[in-house]
Write a structure and sequence with these properties.
2 copies of one chain form a homodimer.
Chain A lengths: L2 E4 L3 E6 L4 E7 L1 H9 L5 E8 L4 H9 L2 E9 L5 E7 L6 E7 L19 E4 L4 H10 L5 E5 L2 H6 L1 H8 L4 E5 H8 L4 H10 L4 E5 L5 E5 L2 E5 L13 H14 L6 H18 L6 H4 L3 H15 L3
Parallel strand pairs in A: 1-4, 1-8, 2-6, 4-5, 8-9, 9-10, 10-11
Antiparallel strand pairs in A: 2-3, 6-7, 11-12, 12-13
Helix pairs in contact in A: 1-8, 3-5, 6-7, 8-9, 9-11
Chain lengths: 301, 301
Protein backbone atom coordinates (compact mmCIF):
# COMPACT_ATOMS: atom_id res chain seq x y z
CA UNK A 1 0.00 0.00 0.00
CA UNK A 2 2.45 2.65 -1.07
CA UNK A 3 1.90 6.15 -2.32
CA UNK A 4 4.01 7.78 -5.01
CA UNK A 5 4.17 11.58 -4.99
CA UNK A 6 5.75 13.94 -7.49
CA UNK A 7 5.99 17.72 -7.23
CA UNK A 8 8.00 20.69 -6.04
CA UNK A 9 10.58 20.62 -3.28
CA UNK A 10 11.56 24.19 -2.62
CA UNK A 11 12.87 27.02 -0.53
CA UNK A 12 10.19 29.50 0.52
CA UNK A 13 10.59 33.03 1.78
CA UNK A 14 7.37 34.07 3.47
CA UNK A 15 6.01 37.38 4.72
CA UNK A 16 2.89 37.34 6.86
CA UNK A 17 1.16 40.38 8.40
CA UNK A 18 3.05 39.77 11.66
CA UNK A 19 6.18 37.77 10.89
CA UNK A 20 8.51 36.51 8.16
CA UNK A 21 10.96 33.73 7.32
CA UNK A 22 13.72 33.50 4.73
CA UNK A 23 14.54 30.34 2.75
CA UNK A 24 12.66 27.79 4.84
CA UNK A 25 11.73 24.34 3.59
CA UNK A 26 8.70 24.50 1.29
CA UNK A 27 7.26 23.03 -1.89
CA UNK A 28 3.98 21.30 -2.59
CA UNK A 29 5.44 17.78 -2.58
CA UNK A 30 7.24 18.44 0.69
CA UNK A 31 4.07 19.41 2.55
CA UNK A 32 2.14 16.67 0.81
CA UNK A 33 4.59 13.92 1.70
CA UNK A 34 5.08 15.02 5.26
CA UNK A 35 1.31 14.98 5.89
CA UNK A 36 0.73 11.74 3.97
CA UNK A 37 3.46 9.95 5.90
CA UNK A 38 1.30 10.01 9.03
CA UNK A 39 -0.90 7.49 7.26
CA UNK A 40 1.09 5.56 4.63
CA UNK A 41 4.60 4.97 3.29
CA UNK A 42 5.41 7.70 0.77
CA UNK A 43 7.86 7.59 -2.12
CA UNK A 44 8.83 11.04 -3.32
CA UNK A 45 9.98 11.94 -6.85
CA UNK A 46 11.43 15.41 -7.26
CA UNK A 47 14.47 17.55 -7.82
CA UNK A 48 16.56 19.76 -5.56
CA UNK A 49 19.53 21.97 -6.33
CA UNK A 50 23.05 22.29 -5.07
CA UNK A 51 21.91 24.55 -2.19
CA UNK A 52 19.57 21.96 -0.65
CA UNK A 53 20.74 21.09 2.87
CA UNK A 54 21.03 17.47 3.95
CA UNK A 55 19.28 18.42 7.18
CA UNK A 56 16.07 19.08 5.21
CA UNK A 57 16.30 15.67 3.54
CA UNK A 58 16.82 14.06 6.92
CA UNK A 59 13.67 15.73 8.28
CA UNK A 60 11.68 14.03 5.54
CA UNK A 61 13.44 10.67 5.86
CA UNK A 62 12.92 10.61 9.60
CA UNK A 63 9.18 10.71 8.89
CA UNK A 64 9.61 7.60 6.73
CA UNK A 65 9.54 9.31 3.35
CA UNK A 66 11.59 7.46 0.73
CA UNK A 67 13.77 9.95 -1.17
CA UNK A 68 15.26 7.49 -3.68
CA UNK A 69 13.39 9.38 -6.44
CA UNK A 70 14.72 12.80 -5.48
CA UNK A 71 17.64 13.85 -7.67
CA UNK A 72 20.08 16.60 -6.89
CA UNK A 73 20.98 18.95 -9.76
CA UNK A 74 24.42 20.33 -8.98
CA UNK A 75 24.23 22.79 -11.88
CA UNK A 76 21.78 25.11 -10.17
CA UNK A 77 19.93 26.07 -7.00
CA UNK A 78 16.59 24.73 -5.79
CA UNK A 79 13.12 25.95 -6.73
CA UNK A 80 12.46 29.17 -4.86
CA UNK A 81 9.21 30.94 -3.99
CA UNK A 82 8.84 34.27 -2.23
CA UNK A 83 5.32 35.18 -1.19
CA UNK A 84 3.51 37.71 0.93
CA UNK A 85 0.16 37.38 2.70
CA UNK A 86 -2.07 40.39 3.09
CA UNK A 87 -4.08 41.37 6.17
CA UNK A 88 -5.71 38.37 7.82
CA UNK A 89 -4.29 36.02 5.17
CA UNK A 90 -7.20 36.75 2.82
CA UNK A 91 -4.90 37.00 -0.20
CA UNK A 92 -1.35 36.26 -1.11
CA UNK A 93 0.92 37.59 -3.77
CA UNK A 94 3.95 36.00 -5.37
CA UNK A 95 6.90 38.38 -5.15
CA UNK A 96 9.33 36.00 -6.83
CA UNK A 97 9.21 32.51 -8.26
CA UNK A 98 12.39 30.88 -9.56
CA UNK A 99 11.57 27.58 -11.28
CA UNK A 100 15.28 26.90 -11.78
CA UNK A 101 14.63 24.39 -14.53
CA UNK A 102 11.84 22.61 -12.67
CA UNK A 103 9.60 23.01 -15.74
CA UNK A 104 12.23 21.26 -17.92
CA UNK A 105 13.08 18.52 -15.43
CA UNK A 106 12.29 14.98 -16.56
CA UNK A 107 11.17 12.89 -13.60
CA UNK A 108 12.53 9.36 -13.23
CA UNK A 109 10.43 7.03 -11.11
CA UNK A 110 12.76 4.48 -9.45
CA UNK A 111 12.10 0.82 -10.32
CA UNK A 112 10.84 -0.03 -6.84
CA UNK A 113 8.17 2.73 -7.00
CA UNK A 114 6.71 1.79 -10.37
CA UNK A 115 4.02 -0.45 -8.93
CA UNK A 116 2.68 2.10 -6.43
CA UNK A 117 -1.04 1.62 -6.01
CA UNK A 118 -1.77 5.32 -5.54
CA UNK A 119 -0.09 8.17 -7.39
CA UNK A 120 -0.23 11.86 -6.56
CA UNK A 121 0.77 14.24 -9.33
CA UNK A 122 1.53 17.43 -7.39
CA UNK A 123 1.40 20.88 -8.90
CA UNK A 124 4.25 20.33 -11.36
CA UNK A 125 3.94 21.12 -15.06
CA UNK A 126 1.45 18.93 -16.92
CA UNK A 127 4.43 17.61 -18.89
CA UNK A 128 6.11 16.36 -15.73
CA UNK A 129 2.78 14.96 -14.55
CA UNK A 130 2.30 13.03 -17.82
CA UNK A 131 5.92 11.80 -17.84
CA UNK A 132 5.47 10.44 -14.33
CA UNK A 133 2.25 8.71 -15.22
CA UNK A 134 3.77 7.19 -18.36
CA UNK A 135 6.31 5.33 -16.24
CA UNK A 136 3.84 3.94 -13.71
CA UNK A 137 2.47 0.44 -14.02
CA UNK A 138 -1.31 0.93 -14.04
CA UNK A 139 -1.84 2.65 -10.70
CA UNK A 140 -5.20 1.98 -9.14
CA UNK A 141 -5.93 5.60 -8.41
CA UNK A 142 -4.36 8.81 -9.69
CA UNK A 143 -4.72 12.14 -7.90
CA UNK A 144 -3.50 15.46 -9.30
CA UNK A 145 -3.21 19.07 -8.26
CA UNK A 146 -2.52 22.09 -10.41
CA UNK A 147 -1.90 25.81 -10.04
CA UNK A 148 -2.67 29.00 -11.95
CA UNK A 149 0.68 29.03 -13.78
CA UNK A 150 -0.05 25.75 -15.59
CA UNK A 151 -3.68 26.62 -16.30
CA UNK A 152 -2.41 29.79 -18.00
CA UNK A 153 0.54 28.40 -19.89
CA UNK A 154 -0.15 24.70 -20.46
CA UNK A 155 -3.91 24.35 -20.75
CA UNK A 156 -3.86 21.71 -23.51
CA UNK A 157 -1.42 19.43 -21.69
CA UNK A 158 -3.42 19.93 -18.51
CA UNK A 159 -6.52 18.64 -20.32
CA UNK A 160 -4.55 15.49 -21.17
CA UNK A 161 -3.67 15.08 -17.49
CA UNK A 162 -7.29 15.57 -16.44
CA UNK A 163 -8.46 12.89 -18.85
CA UNK A 164 -6.25 10.42 -17.02
CA UNK A 165 -6.75 11.23 -13.34
CA UNK A 166 -9.39 9.90 -10.96
CA UNK A 167 -9.34 12.89 -8.63
CA UNK A 168 -8.30 16.51 -9.08
CA UNK A 169 -7.57 18.71 -6.08
CA UNK A 170 -7.65 22.41 -6.88
CA UNK A 171 -8.22 25.63 -5.01
CA UNK A 172 -11.29 27.80 -5.54
CA UNK A 173 -9.71 30.59 -7.61
CA UNK A 174 -7.97 28.05 -9.84
CA UNK A 175 -11.18 26.05 -10.30
CA UNK A 176 -12.82 29.27 -11.52
CA UNK A 177 -9.87 30.01 -13.79
CA UNK A 178 -9.84 26.50 -15.27
CA UNK A 179 -13.57 26.41 -16.01
CA UNK A 180 -14.41 30.10 -16.63
CA UNK A 181 -17.24 29.46 -14.18
CA UNK A 182 -17.69 31.69 -11.12
CA UNK A 183 -20.07 29.35 -9.30
CA UNK A 184 -18.04 26.63 -7.57
CA UNK A 185 -20.74 23.96 -7.80
CA UNK A 186 -20.83 24.43 -11.56
CA UNK A 187 -17.04 24.66 -11.71
CA UNK A 188 -16.68 21.32 -9.90
CA UNK A 189 -19.12 19.62 -12.26
CA UNK A 190 -17.36 21.07 -15.29
CA UNK A 191 -14.06 19.64 -14.05
CA UNK A 192 -15.71 16.25 -13.55
CA UNK A 193 -16.80 16.44 -17.20
CA UNK A 194 -13.11 16.84 -18.13
CA UNK A 195 -12.26 13.43 -16.69
CA UNK A 196 -11.91 13.04 -12.92
CA UNK A 197 -14.88 11.37 -11.21
CA UNK A 198 -13.75 13.06 -7.99
CA UNK A 199 -12.91 16.72 -7.55
CA UNK A 200 -11.91 18.52 -4.37
CA UNK A 201 -12.20 22.30 -4.45
CA UNK A 202 -10.15 23.73 -1.60
CA UNK A 203 -11.55 26.99 -0.20
CA UNK A 204 -8.94 27.77 2.48
CA UNK A 205 -10.55 29.11 5.65
CA UNK A 206 -13.96 28.21 4.21
CA UNK A 207 -13.22 24.50 3.91
CA UNK A 208 -13.78 22.37 0.85
CA UNK A 209 -16.29 21.01 -1.62
CA UNK A 210 -15.85 17.36 -2.56
CA UNK A 211 -17.54 16.17 -5.74
CA UNK A 212 -17.94 12.42 -6.09
CA UNK A 213 -19.90 11.20 -9.09
CA UNK A 214 -23.30 12.92 -8.72
CA UNK A 215 -22.86 13.94 -5.08
CA UNK A 216 -21.31 16.96 -3.39
CA UNK A 217 -19.93 16.89 0.14
CA UNK A 218 -19.26 20.32 1.63
CA UNK A 219 -16.90 20.44 4.60
CA UNK A 220 -15.99 23.49 6.69
CA UNK A 221 -12.44 24.20 7.80
CA UNK A 222 -11.47 23.42 11.37
CA UNK A 223 -11.99 26.79 13.09
CA UNK A 224 -8.79 28.24 14.48
CA UNK A 225 -7.52 31.72 15.26
CA UNK A 226 -3.92 30.58 15.56
CA UNK A 227 -2.78 31.08 11.99
CA UNK A 228 0.95 31.63 11.69
CA UNK A 229 1.44 30.80 7.99
CA UNK A 230 -1.16 29.27 5.64
CA UNK A 231 1.46 28.06 3.14
CA UNK A 232 1.12 24.34 2.51
CA UNK A 233 -2.35 24.02 4.04
CA UNK A 234 -3.85 22.78 0.79
CA UNK A 235 -0.91 20.46 0.08
CA UNK A 236 -1.02 18.90 3.54
CA UNK A 237 -4.82 18.60 3.22
CA UNK A 238 -4.19 16.57 0.07
CA UNK A 239 -1.41 14.56 1.74
CA UNK A 240 -3.50 13.53 4.73
CA UNK A 241 -6.55 12.82 2.61
CA UNK A 242 -4.70 10.66 0.09
CA UNK A 243 -2.37 9.08 2.66
CA UNK A 244 -5.42 7.90 4.57
CA UNK A 245 -7.13 6.60 1.42
CA UNK A 246 -4.00 4.69 0.40
CA UNK A 247 -4.48 2.30 3.30
CA UNK A 248 -8.21 1.71 2.96
CA UNK A 249 -9.55 -1.51 1.42
CA UNK A 250 -12.29 0.33 -0.46
CA UNK A 251 -13.34 3.91 -1.11
CA UNK A 252 -16.97 4.15 -0.02
CA UNK A 253 -18.78 7.29 1.13
CA UNK A 254 -17.79 6.90 4.77
CA UNK A 255 -14.12 6.37 3.93
CA UNK A 256 -14.13 9.35 1.58
CA UNK A 257 -15.68 11.59 4.25
CA UNK A 258 -13.12 10.38 6.78
CA UNK A 259 -10.41 11.27 4.28
CA UNK A 260 -11.77 14.82 3.92
CA UNK A 261 -11.91 15.15 7.70
CA UNK A 262 -8.29 13.98 8.09
CA UNK A 263 -7.24 16.44 5.40
CA UNK A 264 -9.11 19.27 7.13
CA UNK A 265 -7.62 18.49 10.53
CA UNK A 266 -4.04 18.07 9.35
CA UNK A 267 -4.24 21.35 7.38
CA UNK A 268 -5.30 23.09 10.61
CA UNK A 269 -2.03 21.96 12.22
CA UNK A 270 0.01 23.09 9.22
CA UNK A 271 -1.18 26.70 9.46
CA UNK A 272 -0.04 26.83 13.10
CA UNK A 273 3.62 27.25 12.12
CA UNK A 274 6.00 28.19 9.32
CA UNK A 275 7.13 25.43 6.93
CA UNK A 276 6.35 21.98 8.38
CA UNK A 277 6.82 23.10 12.00
CA UNK A 278 3.12 22.66 12.77
CA UNK A 279 3.31 19.04 11.59
CA UNK A 280 6.69 18.29 13.15
CA UNK A 281 5.19 19.14 16.53
CA UNK A 282 2.42 16.55 16.42
CA UNK A 283 1.85 12.81 16.47
CA UNK A 284 -0.96 10.66 15.14
CA UNK A 285 -2.69 10.87 18.53
CA UNK A 286 -2.98 14.67 18.15
CA UNK A 287 -4.57 14.21 14.74
CA UNK A 288 -7.04 11.67 16.13
CA UNK A 289 -7.89 13.92 19.06
CA UNK A 290 -8.62 16.90 16.81
CA UNK A 291 -10.55 14.70 14.39
CA UNK A 292 -12.81 13.62 17.24
CA UNK A 293 -13.27 17.27 18.20
CA UNK A 294 -14.05 18.15 14.56
CA UNK A 295 -16.59 15.33 14.25
CA UNK A 296 -18.27 16.57 17.42
CA UNK A 297 -18.43 20.06 15.91
CA UNK A 298 -20.16 18.63 12.84
CA UNK A 299 -22.50 16.43 14.86
CA UNK A 300 -20.94 13.22 13.47
CA UNK A 301 -20.92 10.72 16.34
CA UNK B 1 -44.43 27.94 22.62
CA UNK B 2 -44.75 31.16 20.65
CA UNK B 3 -42.13 33.28 18.99
CA UNK B 4 -42.29 37.06 18.89
CA UNK B 5 -40.43 38.76 16.02
CA UNK B 6 -39.80 42.43 15.42
CA UNK B 7 -38.11 43.97 12.39
CA UNK B 8 -38.50 45.42 8.94
CA UNK B 9 -41.36 44.69 6.58
CA UNK B 10 -40.48 46.25 3.28
CA UNK B 11 -40.61 46.60 -0.45
CA UNK B 12 -37.45 45.49 -2.22
CA UNK B 13 -36.26 46.27 -5.72
CA UNK B 14 -33.59 43.78 -6.65
CA UNK B 15 -31.10 43.57 -9.49
CA UNK B 16 -29.17 40.35 -9.97
CA UNK B 17 -26.60 39.61 -12.69
CA UNK B 18 -29.33 37.95 -14.77
CA UNK B 19 -32.70 39.30 -13.67
CA UNK B 20 -34.49 41.99 -11.68
CA UNK B 21 -37.71 42.69 -9.76
CA UNK B 22 -39.34 45.94 -8.72
CA UNK B 23 -41.11 46.48 -5.38
CA UNK B 24 -41.51 42.88 -4.30
CA UNK B 25 -42.21 41.82 -0.72
CA UNK B 26 -39.06 41.99 1.40
CA UNK B 27 -37.80 42.96 4.84
CA UNK B 28 -35.85 41.03 7.42
CA UNK B 29 -38.88 40.28 9.62
CA UNK B 30 -40.87 39.09 6.63
CA UNK B 31 -38.30 36.48 5.61
CA UNK B 32 -37.69 35.57 9.24
CA UNK B 33 -41.37 35.02 10.04
CA UNK B 34 -42.15 33.13 6.89
CA UNK B 35 -39.30 30.67 7.56
CA UNK B 36 -40.00 30.39 11.29
CA UNK B 37 -43.67 29.65 10.68
CA UNK B 38 -42.74 26.22 9.27
CA UNK B 39 -41.80 25.31 12.83
CA UNK B 40 -43.69 27.46 15.34
CA UNK B 41 -46.48 30.03 15.66
CA UNK B 42 -45.02 33.49 14.98
CA UNK B 43 -46.28 36.86 16.21
CA UNK B 44 -44.95 39.73 14.14
CA UNK B 45 -44.43 43.30 15.33
CA UNK B 46 -43.67 45.85 12.65
CA UNK B 47 -44.87 48.78 10.61
CA UNK B 48 -46.03 49.14 7.01
CA UNK B 49 -47.04 52.22 5.08
CA UNK B 50 -50.07 53.28 3.09
CA UNK B 51 -48.76 51.54 -0.03
CA UNK B 52 -48.63 48.05 1.54
CA UNK B 53 -50.97 45.68 -0.31
CA UNK B 54 -53.41 43.51 1.62
CA UNK B 55 -52.38 40.61 -0.61
CA UNK B 56 -48.89 40.66 0.97
CA UNK B 57 -50.39 40.55 4.46
CA UNK B 58 -52.60 37.65 3.41
CA UNK B 59 -49.54 35.71 2.18
CA UNK B 60 -48.08 35.96 5.69
CA UNK B 61 -51.35 35.22 7.48
CA UNK B 62 -51.96 32.15 5.35
CA UNK B 63 -48.71 30.77 6.73
CA UNK B 64 -50.10 31.26 10.25
CA UNK B 65 -48.21 34.45 11.11
CA UNK B 66 -50.16 36.66 13.54
CA UNK B 67 -50.07 40.26 12.28
CA UNK B 68 -51.89 41.86 15.25
CA UNK B 69 -48.64 43.69 16.06
CA UNK B 70 -48.19 45.15 12.59
CA UNK B 71 -49.42 48.74 12.40
CA UNK B 72 -50.16 50.64 9.22
CA UNK B 73 -48.87 54.22 9.04
CA UNK B 74 -51.13 56.04 6.60
CA UNK B 75 -48.90 59.13 6.64
CA UNK B 76 -46.18 57.57 4.53
CA UNK B 77 -45.06 54.67 2.36
CA UNK B 78 -43.39 51.45 3.50
CA UNK B 79 -39.70 50.86 4.12
CA UNK B 80 -37.99 50.50 0.75
CA UNK B 81 -34.68 48.91 -0.22
CA UNK B 82 -33.11 48.85 -3.66
CA UNK B 83 -30.08 46.61 -4.05
CA UNK B 84 -27.87 45.20 -6.73
CA UNK B 85 -25.81 42.00 -6.69
CA UNK B 86 -22.53 41.83 -8.55
CA UNK B 87 -21.22 38.95 -10.62
CA UNK B 88 -21.93 35.58 -9.01
CA UNK B 89 -23.59 37.28 -6.02
CA UNK B 90 -20.22 37.80 -4.33
CA UNK B 91 -21.13 41.33 -3.25
CA UNK B 92 -24.14 43.54 -3.10
CA UNK B 93 -24.57 47.28 -3.05
CA UNK B 94 -27.42 49.34 -1.70
CA UNK B 95 -28.61 51.74 -4.38
CA UNK B 96 -31.36 53.25 -2.24
CA UNK B 97 -32.70 52.73 1.26
CA UNK B 98 -35.76 54.68 2.40
CA UNK B 99 -36.35 54.10 6.12
CA UNK B 100 -39.56 56.14 5.95
CA UNK B 101 -39.60 56.76 9.67
CA UNK B 102 -38.78 53.16 10.58
CA UNK B 103 -35.94 54.41 12.80
CA UNK B 104 -38.38 56.63 14.72
CA UNK B 105 -41.16 54.08 14.96
CA UNK B 106 -42.08 52.98 18.48
CA UNK B 107 -43.06 49.32 18.50
CA UNK B 108 -46.11 48.27 20.53
CA UNK B 109 -46.20 44.60 21.48
CA UNK B 110 -49.85 43.50 21.73
CA UNK B 111 -51.00 42.25 25.13
CA UNK B 112 -51.37 38.66 23.95
CA UNK B 113 -47.73 38.56 22.70
CA UNK B 114 -46.12 39.89 25.89
CA UNK B 115 -45.51 36.46 27.39
CA UNK B 116 -43.79 34.99 24.31
CA UNK B 117 -41.14 32.54 25.41
CA UNK B 118 -38.73 33.37 22.60
CA UNK B 119 -38.11 36.85 21.17
CA UNK B 120 -36.30 37.73 17.95
CA UNK B 121 -35.12 41.32 17.65
CA UNK B 122 -34.60 41.63 13.89
CA UNK B 123 -32.29 44.16 12.29
CA UNK B 124 -34.22 47.22 13.47
CA UNK B 125 -32.54 50.14 15.26
CA UNK B 126 -31.18 49.25 18.70
CA UNK B 127 -33.74 51.73 20.10
CA UNK B 128 -36.61 49.72 18.61
CA UNK B 129 -34.97 46.52 19.82
CA UNK B 130 -34.69 47.85 23.39
CA UNK B 131 -38.25 49.24 23.34
CA UNK B 132 -39.55 45.83 22.29
CA UNK B 133 -37.60 44.07 24.99
CA UNK B 134 -38.78 46.53 27.66
CA UNK B 135 -42.37 45.49 27.00
CA UNK B 136 -41.79 41.75 27.13
CA UNK B 137 -42.40 39.79 30.28
CA UNK B 138 -39.09 38.03 30.95
CA UNK B 139 -38.69 36.03 27.77
CA UNK B 140 -36.74 32.82 28.21
CA UNK B 141 -34.45 33.45 25.27
CA UNK B 142 -33.71 36.58 23.27
CA UNK B 143 -32.15 36.51 19.79
CA UNK B 144 -31.03 39.57 17.89
CA UNK B 145 -29.67 40.51 14.49
CA UNK B 146 -28.08 43.76 13.40
CA UNK B 147 -26.73 45.40 10.26
CA UNK B 148 -23.94 47.79 9.31
CA UNK B 149 -26.15 50.88 9.50
CA UNK B 150 -26.77 50.44 13.25
CA UNK B 151 -23.19 49.45 14.02
CA UNK B 152 -22.10 52.71 12.38
CA UNK B 153 -24.72 55.05 13.78
CA UNK B 154 -25.91 53.54 17.05
CA UNK B 155 -22.98 51.66 18.52
CA UNK B 156 -23.65 52.57 22.16
CA UNK B 157 -27.30 51.52 22.04
CA UNK B 158 -26.27 48.34 20.26
CA UNK B 159 -23.94 47.51 23.17
CA UNK B 160 -26.97 47.81 25.50
CA UNK B 161 -28.89 45.38 23.28
CA UNK B 162 -25.99 42.93 23.24
CA UNK B 163 -25.79 42.95 27.02
CA UNK B 164 -29.37 41.69 27.12
CA UNK B 165 -29.53 39.06 24.37
CA UNK B 166 -28.73 35.36 24.60
CA UNK B 167 -27.85 34.93 20.94
CA UNK B 168 -26.67 37.36 18.27
CA UNK B 169 -26.92 36.46 14.59
CA UNK B 170 -24.72 38.60 12.38
CA UNK B 171 -23.08 38.30 8.99
CA UNK B 172 -19.33 38.05 8.54
CA UNK B 173 -18.59 41.57 7.34
CA UNK B 174 -20.71 43.04 10.13
CA UNK B 175 -19.05 40.84 12.74
CA UNK B 176 -15.71 42.26 11.56
CA UNK B 177 -17.09 45.79 11.63
CA UNK B 178 -18.55 45.39 15.14
CA UNK B 179 -15.37 43.97 16.65
CA UNK B 180 -12.59 45.54 14.54
CA UNK B 181 -11.30 41.99 14.27
CA UNK B 182 -10.61 40.46 10.85
CA UNK B 183 -10.40 36.88 12.09
CA UNK B 184 -13.92 35.49 12.47
CA UNK B 185 -13.07 33.12 15.31
CA UNK B 186 -11.74 36.05 17.33
CA UNK B 187 -14.65 38.24 16.23
CA UNK B 188 -17.16 35.67 17.48
CA UNK B 189 -15.45 35.39 20.84
CA UNK B 190 -15.30 39.16 21.18
CA UNK B 191 -19.04 39.36 20.58
CA UNK B 192 -19.61 36.68 23.22
CA UNK B 193 -17.65 38.90 25.64
CA UNK B 194 -20.18 41.68 24.91
CA UNK B 195 -23.03 39.60 26.32
CA UNK B 196 -24.53 36.82 24.17
CA UNK B 197 -23.46 33.31 25.16
CA UNK B 198 -24.36 32.24 21.62
CA UNK B 199 -23.24 33.91 18.41
CA UNK B 200 -23.97 32.84 14.84
CA UNK B 201 -21.74 34.38 12.18
CA UNK B 202 -23.43 33.94 8.82
CA UNK B 203 -20.98 33.57 5.91
CA UNK B 204 -23.42 33.31 2.98
CA UNK B 205 -22.27 30.71 0.45
CA UNK B 206 -19.58 29.60 2.93
CA UNK B 207 -22.03 28.61 5.66
CA UNK B 208 -21.88 29.67 9.28
CA UNK B 209 -19.87 29.61 12.48
CA UNK B 210 -21.89 28.97 15.63
CA UNK B 211 -20.28 29.92 18.94
CA UNK B 212 -21.81 28.37 22.03
CA UNK B 213 -20.06 29.06 25.31
CA UNK B 214 -16.50 27.74 24.74
CA UNK B 215 -17.31 25.72 21.60
CA UNK B 216 -17.46 26.56 17.91
CA UNK B 217 -19.56 24.65 15.41
CA UNK B 218 -18.71 25.37 11.76
CA UNK B 219 -21.36 24.44 9.21
CA UNK B 220 -21.07 24.68 5.42
CA UNK B 221 -23.87 26.02 3.25
CA UNK B 222 -26.03 23.55 1.36
CA UNK B 223 -24.31 23.46 -2.05
CA UNK B 224 -26.52 24.73 -4.84
CA UNK B 225 -25.93 26.31 -8.23
CA UNK B 226 -29.52 27.50 -8.55
CA UNK B 227 -29.22 30.93 -7.00
CA UNK B 228 -31.87 33.32 -8.22
CA UNK B 229 -31.71 35.95 -5.45
CA UNK B 230 -29.77 35.66 -2.18
CA UNK B 231 -31.85 38.37 -0.44
CA UNK B 232 -33.34 37.06 2.79
CA UNK B 233 -31.11 33.98 3.01
CA UNK B 234 -29.67 35.08 6.35
CA UNK B 235 -33.06 36.13 7.71
CA UNK B 236 -34.72 32.87 6.75
CA UNK B 237 -31.73 30.97 8.18
CA UNK B 238 -32.44 32.77 11.47
CA UNK B 239 -36.17 32.13 11.16
CA UNK B 240 -35.85 28.39 10.64
CA UNK B 241 -33.16 28.06 13.30
CA UNK B 242 -35.11 29.95 15.95
CA UNK B 243 -38.51 28.61 14.90
CA UNK B 244 -37.19 25.10 15.41
CA UNK B 245 -35.62 25.98 18.79
CA UNK B 246 -38.88 27.55 19.97
CA UNK B 247 -40.53 24.13 20.07
CA UNK B 248 -37.73 22.19 21.73
CA UNK B 249 -37.90 21.26 25.42
CA UNK B 250 -34.22 22.00 25.96
CA UNK B 251 -31.32 23.46 24.01
CA UNK B 252 -28.55 20.86 24.12
CA UNK B 253 -25.76 20.41 21.58
CA UNK B 254 -27.76 18.06 19.36
CA UNK B 255 -30.76 20.37 19.28
CA UNK B 256 -28.57 23.38 18.53
CA UNK B 257 -26.87 21.56 15.64
CA UNK B 258 -30.26 20.51 14.29
CA UNK B 259 -31.31 24.15 14.44
CA UNK B 260 -28.27 25.22 12.40
CA UNK B 261 -29.00 22.49 9.86
CA UNK B 262 -32.63 23.59 9.51
CA UNK B 263 -31.48 27.19 9.08
CA UNK B 264 -28.97 26.14 6.42
CA UNK B 265 -31.48 24.08 4.49
CA UNK B 266 -34.29 26.64 4.57
CA UNK B 267 -31.88 29.38 3.42
CA UNK B 268 -31.00 27.20 0.43
CA UNK B 269 -34.66 27.23 -0.63
CA UNK B 270 -34.91 31.00 -0.14
CA UNK B 271 -32.13 31.74 -2.64
CA UNK B 272 -33.96 29.70 -5.28
CA UNK B 273 -36.43 32.52 -5.99
CA UNK B 274 -37.13 36.24 -5.58
CA UNK B 275 -38.82 37.41 -2.38
CA UNK B 276 -40.39 34.48 -0.51
CA UNK B 277 -41.16 32.52 -3.70
CA UNK B 278 -38.62 29.83 -2.85
CA UNK B 279 -40.33 29.24 0.50
CA UNK B 280 -43.88 29.53 -0.83
CA UNK B 281 -43.14 26.63 -3.15
CA UNK B 282 -42.21 24.14 -0.43
CA UNK B 283 -43.72 22.21 2.45
CA UNK B 284 -42.21 20.81 5.62
CA UNK B 285 -41.61 17.50 3.84
CA UNK B 286 -39.30 19.26 1.35
CA UNK B 287 -37.33 20.74 4.23
CA UNK B 288 -37.03 17.34 5.91
CA UNK B 289 -35.95 15.70 2.67
CA UNK B 290 -33.22 18.25 2.06
CA UNK B 291 -32.14 18.09 5.70
CA UNK B 292 -31.64 14.34 5.34
CA UNK B 293 -29.63 14.97 2.17
CA UNK B 294 -27.55 17.60 3.99
CA UNK B 295 -26.88 15.31 6.95
CA UNK B 296 -25.72 12.63 4.52
CA UNK B 297 -23.38 15.16 2.93
CA UNK B 298 -21.88 15.90 6.33
CA UNK B 299 -21.68 12.26 7.35
CA UNK B 300 -24.24 12.71 10.15
CA UNK B 301 -26.33 9.53 10.22
Amino acid sequence: MSLLAVGTIAFDSIETPTDSRIRIMGGSATYFSYAAAFFAPVSLVGIVGKDWPDSYSRLLEERGIDLAGVVRDLSQDSYFWHGRYTINFQDRETLECQLRGFDKWVPIVPEQFLRSRFVFLGAASPTVQLQTLAQCNLPEFVFADTVDMWIETAGDDLRCVLARVNCLLINDSEARQLTSEQDLVRAGRKIQAMGPTMVVIKKGEHGSLFFHEGSIFPCPAFPTDRIVDPTGAGDSFAGAMIGYLTCQPKLDRRVLLNAIHYGTVVASFTVGGFSIEGLEAIEMSDIEERRTEFRNMLGVD
